């Protein structure tokens, strides 16, 4: 019986030795679970820093006198035309209120002949704008996304009114909504 106890103790010691070997972390696994996330975190921080702070001095050189001259040569001449009087329109509101929208618009274009088309088609442009603007609500114009959609729609309506001439941009120089 003593021999059986010795064999059982030897077997138990062998199992403990094997169990202890399994409980020790393997160096490869340790490097994988700790080192790899640390490297990824460092790379993400560096990329975020470069994104936020520019990461280079090329922008400063472009602002020098020589850089401005080069940019003026690359960019075509832009012409602008502003509607002299602001557009004043009652827009849709909630309940009995009818807010008033006051809007000043200007146009940018590269072809100087577009200015003549704008002057000749101003009545059609204003007619297009009036119908569209009366259906707007203050929520339609709220925020930068609403103003962007408004610019795009005014650009589309302007280009339809003066076709085949084309305006490049519609600029909203003043937007005011007053409650009555």
TrEMBL record:
Family to which the UniProt record says this protein belongs: Belongs to the FliL family.
Function summary: Controls the rotational direction of flagella during chemotaxis.
Transmembrane segments: 30-53
Topology versus the membrane: Single-pass membrane protein
UniProt organism field: Glycocaulis abyssi
Top-level lineage group: Bacteria
Acidic residues bias locations: 1-18
Location(s), subcellular: Cell inner membrane; Cell membrane
Region (Disordered): 1-23
Keywords of this entry: Cell inner membrane, Cell membrane, Cell projection, Chemotaxis, Cilium, Flagellar rotation, Flagellum, Membrane, Transmembrane, Transmembrane helix
Alphabetical list of Pfam families matching this protein: FliL
Protein name in UniProt: Flagellar protein FliL
